[in-house]
Amino acid sequence: MPAFPKTSPADDHLWQIERQVFQLRTLFEIAQTLNGCRDSESILQQVLAVLCGTFGVEHAAGCVLDQSDAHWRCLSLRGKTASLQTLTEHLQQTGGASLEGLGPAVAAFFQLTPLPNQQAMVELRIKNRTAGAFFLGAKLSGEVYQSHELDLLATAASFTANALDNVQLYEALQQAQEKLRAENLSLREAVHSEYAADSIIGNSAAMQEVQNLLRSFARSAANVLIYGETGTGKELAARAIHYRSARADGPFIGINCAAIPENLVESEFFGIEAGVATGVRQHIGYFEQANGGTLFIDEVGDMPAASQAKLLRVLQERRVRRVGGDRELPVNVRLIAATNKDLTAAIRAGGFREDLYYRLAVLELRLPPLRERAEDIPLLVNHFVQRYARRQKRDPAGVSTEALRALQNYGWPGNVREIENEIERALAMTDDAGPIGIHHLSERFVVSAVTAEVGAKVPEGEMRTAVDALERKMISNALEKYRGNKSQVARTLGLSRLGLQSKMNRLGIRSDEL
């Protein structure tokens, strides 16, 4: 800082003004410098350069305190040919782990004799903790540091600390974003891998035809309409089409029309602008969320008539207008719809628009119910046993012949979803060592198995014999399952305890023989 000769009170006043102007210029220069810095190292380097020029200093250092090990690291060094790493190692070897030891350690590194007021050190504090420090060696002029100079240095340190805090937050945000990007990429690759393989289980002729159609539909950009009963895997098929298509890197948005209240269908699909009603915030609709990807609409047959007309308009024009909006937004979306209803019958009844049907059903896919492909049941059983064994972190359990026969003889009104739920339940009922047995299954499967077994063994026309055999088998299985607990068996079979004992006596069943 330049010295101004003071010969009178007026000169002293002028000197005070000049000093303040000089300080403001220095702080302005530091502020401009900080504005262009994006990392901790550049902040310390640039500010230290300004301070060295301001105070006429040859030797200086800018350091940060590593919170993980309480050691100082030098990020900026001036006036010494040694490296930053050398000074960092010197700080750690000479007790520079504390702020009190930093000044003498740096002075020794520069081979400076620490004389009072000939060196200056100021700490950088962030949120009431020491985050770093500036060390300034002796001035080239030989003058000592004045109090107003130390005040200027403290103000510069405050500016620098704030900048370091912001940069550290920015760096933490960048690291979090990189982590999220890596996780997102990993998840995308896992999903692509899952749906690129044959994710829809089945070797039957019907399922082979479905697989062929899925591959063909994935190569097309046309809308798809999927028919299938509840639980046949309509959304799974839609995802398979999406993740095998050119839109695989875009979003897949799946919605169920039946789950959306009629008065919210329009705002959910097309969005709503803020301020349309009191307290309403802007909401991005499903079409905008799916832009560049695929929108899957399940149970499209349940869509209200008014919404059908607006959906048709979006499909025709490829543009949406939010509720309360004054402009149309272009959207690039492939639509896959699904239903368990007969839409042609709904059209005849006036419940579904014919023109919308033809827009949706450019490509059509029918998923067969499980009862039409019973040969796929063992594959599905094994698939779900493996899946839920992994989730429960246990060795996969086998399935007994009797249990598998019961599963194959069942009608499966809930289709694949029902078989998945049953296997998850049965696996939870088994211990780690044993396979899934008939006694681990729900009662409806036991009845199915017994009925099939008795029906195969009893000659046609002997109804009483068949009924007795069925009752005997059901009671015996229940007694075995509940370990002879007649009260539990009676409740399970819908009998009184007295009624159960009466049947056991008539059929010659003794629980002590089980």
Q: What are the key terms here?
A:
single chain; 514 residues; alpha/beta; Beta-Lactamase; Rossmann fold; Helicase, Ruva Protein, domain 3; 3 domains; five-stranded parallel sheet; four-stranded antiparallel sheet; 52% helix
- CATH topology tier name of the largest domain: Rossmann fold
* Percent helix range: 40-55%
* CATH class call of the largest domain: Alpha Beta
Order of helices and strands: HHEEHHEEHHEHEHHEHEEEHHEHHHHHHH
The major pleated sheet works out as: 5 strands, parallel
> Tally of extended strands?
11
* Overall number of domains: 3
Tell me the name of the CATH homologous superfamily of the largest domain. P-loop containing nucleotide triphosphate hydrolases
Provide a descriptive summary of the structure in words.
The chain is an alpha/beta fold and 514 residues long. The protein has 3 domains: 9-171, 2-Layer Sandwich (Beta-Lactamase), CATH 3.30.450.40; 198-368, 3-Layer(aba) Sandwich (Rossmann fold), CATH 3.40.50; 374-513, Helicase, Ruva Protein, domain 3 (Orthogonal Bundle), CATH 1.10.8.60. The protein has helices spanning 9-35, 40-55, 84-93, 99-109, 147-196, 205-218, 234-243, 265-270, 286-289, 305-317, 343-348, 354-360, 377-391, 401-409, 415-429, 443-457, 463-481, 486-493, 497-507; strands at residues 60-66, 71-78, 120-126, 129-136, 224-227, 252-256, 294-298, 319-320, 329-330, 334-339, 363-366. The strands form 3 sheets. It has a 5-stranded parallel β-sheet with strand order 6-7-10-5-11. A 4-stranded antiparallel β-sheet has the order 2-1-4-3. A hairpin with a 2-residue loop joins β3 (120-126) and β4 (129-136). α2 (40-55) packs antiparallel against α5 (147-196) and α17 packs across α18. The chain is elongated.
